[in-house]
Amino acid sequence: MDPVLTYASLACLAVLMGLGALDKLRHFSLFEAAVGGYRLLPEMVLRPFSVLFVAAEALSAPLLLWPASRSLGAILALFVLLVATSGIVMNLLRGRRDVDCGCSGLGESSGGLSWWLVARNALLAALAVASGDWAISSARELVWVDGLTFFGATLALLGLYYAANQLIESHLKFQKMQNS
């Protein structure tokens, strides 16, 4: 893959991980309640799990941005996404859709869980795979126009993420209104 696309992927993932961690820290009690809503962990481990989850998410963002730790950041981001997606899948398989996903916008009410969130997380996992050092194998020299392409691609990826996230949330809330 072209190194510009790899750099754009890791910048996008670093921004999403960093902003996700900041939102969870800002609304930590809501995030802890959302983790409890999944009903997968005993009550006594909710807080330690929540702290470790947010710490892993927060740590992955700067690790992705340093060349020496890029692969570790990508692995940590993959781990966070795998844990979050596993919780969503287990609840969907149990038929529990009316659970706050705790994945974005904790200050607002959530539309619940859906397979669309699983697909979204799978795409983010693909970004994590595309972000590691193993993905940068091109010997191509970067030129000044690559900087423009990098910023444009990063902003486009972030815009697509937030647009897709908003569509998923609106779809879930619309379904909830129809069923009530």
Automatic annotation (TrEMBL):
Compartments it resides in: Membrane
TM helices/strands, residue ranges: 44-65, 72-93, 113-130, 142-164
Record has Transport as a keyword: no
Primary location: membrane
Domain named Methylamine utilisation protein MauE: residues: 5-130
GO cellular component: membrane
Domain of life of the native organism: Bacteria
Membrane-topology annotation of the record: Multi-pass membrane protein
One Gene Ontology term from the biological process aspect of the record: methylamine metabolic process
Transmembrane is among the record's keywords: yes
Keywords: Membrane, Transmembrane, Transmembrane helix
Pathway(s) it belongs to: One-carbon metabolism; methylamine degradation
Role noted for this protein: May be specifically involved in the processing, transport, and/or maturation of the MADH beta-subunit.
Protein's name according to its UniProt entry: Methylamine utilization protein MauE
Species name: Alcaligenes aquatilis
Lineage per the UniProt record: Bacteria, Pseudomonadati, Pseudomonadota, Betaproteobacteria, Burkholderiales
